[in-house]
Amino acid sequence: MTTYLLRDVSPLGAERTDLLLADGVVAQIGTGLDAPQDAVVVDASALVALPGLVDLHTHLREPGREDAETIATGTRAAAVGGFTAVHAMANTTPTQDTAGVVEQVWHLGRRAGWVDVFPVGAVTVGLEGERLAELGAMADSAARVRVFSDDGKCVHDPVVMRRALEYVKAFDGVVAQHAQEPRLTAGSQMHEGVVSAELGLAGWPAVAEEAVIARDVLLAEHVGSRLHVCHLSTAGSVEIVRWAKSRGIDVTAEVTPHHLMLTDELARGYDPIYKVNPPLRTQADVEAVREGLADGTIDIVATDHAPHPREDKDCEWAAAAFGMTGLETALSVVQEAMVDTGRMTWADVARVLSTAPARIGRVDDRHGRPIAVGEPANLTLVDPAARRVVRPEAQATKSVNSPFRGRELPGAVVATFLRGRATVLDGVPCDDDVAVAR
Ligand SMILES: NC(=O)N[C@@H](CC(=O)O)C(=O)O
Ligand SMILES: [Zn+2]
Ligand SMILES: [Zn+2]
């Protein structure tokens, strides 16, 4: 295995030092380290080192929609985006609702070799919201599932939600809720507000999200369980989570990069590239989620990378699929929205994109670790001074539905290391090295 000496890198944006990566771990830290004979020396004097990013919410689409993404293409895109681990959502075909399917996804992730893939288990059979899936068997499987979600759909029946919350306690699992009251959002196309009224598109009101979050934090309190809120998007949701945390309720929440940056104004062009669930909200909501992320009410940023094939997006708004890609732009968007605005430091970025998601997903024995001697060398090197224009056709993901198309964003992932092995160097995926390691 290649040894890397990262010369003059800035861990978490702090003072520069050298990092020696050998035998899969951070072997030495210090200034002016001697380069071992066969080491590859990387001039990292312009780079910030972060613990490898961890995505709690990725749609890899395999099995079932390999025309949109495969585990191989999606995890390669994840590595390019600086990730060393992703949690793969359960809304595949077949659904990830049995030990057999989650083990298959886990095996395919290992075989691809780009990042560690942690399958999410469905809460209910077929995401139908009626009967609990075999949560225990998925937890005990080789995939060691700890995160359970019907994402794409809401676990709307309060009795089913209560049972799921109770059940996952046995193995320290968490239910990740896609908070969307279905009756309030039947036929909804975009955020309900001034813009939806003007465009004549059916609205998806903030209350449909907030009502479910309010119910679920109370359920989590009642049964003493752990709840995670997926892609929180409204100012009211931030308020409810803030209140729940102040009561000591064991709730965590995520926001997506697109909800940190984009608003419903973008729907005015009727371009379905901006159609997503939950919908893009208002500028006041964007301000509130930024503030919530900065003050710790929102624990993490998760991409909700949702690739769709062209034919599902190149159509009229009402017929188009909900969802946006995000793995390869997440870090840049967080830099623009939070770091370059002075709201967060790089140490905060490491928390919201690595340490906290690893902890919520209970993979913090391997990921989201401090950059310290003896720790697994899962690392991301970012050049904060770089700027680049997003070109979806040039991305590693198989799908081109990026809402950031044509935008210039700050920052670039220069390298990603998974257990000391480079998966990305000079911004380019290391196809040959990853193939050898397979
Ligand atoms: N976010 C989306 O708009 N779509 C997701 C489902 C989801 O995250 O709810 C998808 O699977 O396409
Ligand atoms: Zn969702
Ligand atoms: Zn999702």
Rg, rounded, reads 21 Å
CATH architecture heading of the largest domain? Alpha-Beta Barrel
Low-confidence stretches: none
Number of helices: 12
What helical percentage do the residues reach?
25-40%
- CATH fold description of the largest domain: TIM Barrel
| CATH classification, class level of the largest domain | Alpha Beta
What's the CATH superfamily of the largest domain, by name?
Metal-dependent hydrolases
The count of strands amounts to 19
Oligomeric description of these chains: single chain
Number of domains: 2
Taking the sheet with the most strands, its summary is: 9 strands, mixed
**Secondary structure category:** alpha/beta
Folded structure, characterized:
This protein starts with a strand and ends with a helix. Helix 6 (206-223) packs parallel to helix 7 (235-246) and helix 7 (235-246) runs parallel beside helix 9. The longest helix is centred in the middle third of the chain and has 18 residues, at 206-223. The radius of gyration is 21 Å and the shape is globular. The protein has helices at residues 71-80, 99-112, 135-140, 158-168, 194-199, 206-223, 235-246, 257-261, 283-294, 330-339, 346-360, 431-437; strands spanning 4-11, 17-22, 25-30, 40-43, 48-51, 53-58, 83-88, 116-119, 147-148, 174-177, 190-191, 203-204, 227-229, 251-255, 300-301, 379-389, 408-418, 421-425, 428-429. It folds into 2 domains: 4-49 and 374-395 and 404-437, Roll (Urease, subunit C, domain 1), CATH 2.30.40.10; 52-360, TIM Barrel, CATH 3.20.20. The strands form 4 sheets. Strands 1, 2, 3, 4, 5, 16, 17, 18 and 19 form a 9-stranded mixed β-sheet that branches. The protein is an alpha/beta fold and 438 residues long. Bound molecules: N-carbamoyl-L-aspartate and zinc ion (2 copies). Residues 151-152, 178, 230-231, 277 line the site of one zinc ion (ZN).
